[in-house]
């Protein structure tokens, strides 16, 4: 999730891929739109780097039960803990296309959570303008505002207090990032990945395809 901020005096590192200064917020969410982990970084830090540097990412192999995964978009690397889509190519099989479709459907929970947070806390829909005593942008304070909004969002989710999200909100998040690297045959591979990881994704792909009628009927 990108949250725009005013341009700091020392602006290097704060501009995101969409060419404005921002905080890049890593959200790990569940199916109930509750945020399970968050990490706030300067806008130039990619999603892949944020995962690597975050406390959640560093401890991911210890957090997840055996055989479980985090669903990530194409901006992440395929690893033992993170399952990402297959690279988009003209030779994609029907199994790979179905896998990517279901992957995208699952990933929508993150998008929905971002929309809920920004709808609840409209301060996040405009550039954050918190200042230090000398008039510069208070980036630490902007990160605190974002983190507080996310905590309050979780409280409201626990109270079953949801808001309606309309299409007038700008799309500031995933479409560009989710497509990042998806055109390259090896873009989704982690440097430290072993052959078993790719084989594991293939087994999931084959299971989904064999059971596609049931899955699409009940969850599609």
Automatic annotation (TrEMBL):
Listed cofactors: a divalent metal cation
Chain coiled-coil ranges: none
Residue intervals of the DDE Tnp4 domain: 2-154
Positions of the UniProt region annotated as Disordered: 166-192
One Pfam family this sequence matches: DDE_Tnp_4
Domain of life assignment: Eukaryota
Signal sequence region: none
InterPro entries the record matches: HARBI1_dom
Any one GO molecular-function label of the UniProt entry: metal ion binding
Alphabetical keyword list: Metal-binding
Protein name stated in the entry: DDE Tnp4 domain-containing protein
The organism's taxonomic lineage, starting at the top: Eukaryota, Sar, Stramenopiles, Oomycota, Peronosporomycetes
């Amino acid at each position: 999730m990108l949250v725009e901020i005013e341009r700091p005096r020392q602006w290097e590192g704060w501009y995101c891929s969409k060419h404005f200064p921002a905080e890049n917020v890593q959200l790990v969410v569940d199916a109930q739109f509750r945020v399970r982990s968050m990490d706030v970084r300067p806008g130039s830090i990619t999603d892949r780097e944020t995962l690597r540097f975050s406390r959640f990412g560093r401890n991911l192999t210890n957090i997840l039960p055996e055989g479980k995964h985090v669903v990530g978009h194409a901006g992440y690397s395929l690893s033992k803990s993170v399952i990402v889509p297959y690279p988009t190519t003209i030779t994609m099989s029907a199994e790979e296309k179905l896998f990517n479709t279901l992957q995208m459907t699952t990933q929508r929970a993150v998008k929905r959570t971002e929309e809920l947070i920004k709808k609840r806390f409209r301060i996040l829909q405009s550039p954050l303008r918190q200042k230090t005593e000398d008039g510069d942008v208070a980036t630490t304070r902007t990160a605190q505002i974002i983190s507080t909004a996310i905590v309050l969002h979780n409280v409201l989710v626990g109270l079953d207090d949801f808001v309606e999200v309309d299409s007038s909100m700008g799309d500031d998040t995933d479409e560009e990032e989710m497509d990042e690297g998806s055109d390259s045959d090896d873009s989704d591979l982690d440097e430290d990945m072993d052959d078993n990881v790719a084989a594991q994704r293939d087994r999931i792909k084959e299971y989904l395809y064999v059971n596609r009628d049931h899955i699409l009927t009940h969850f599609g």
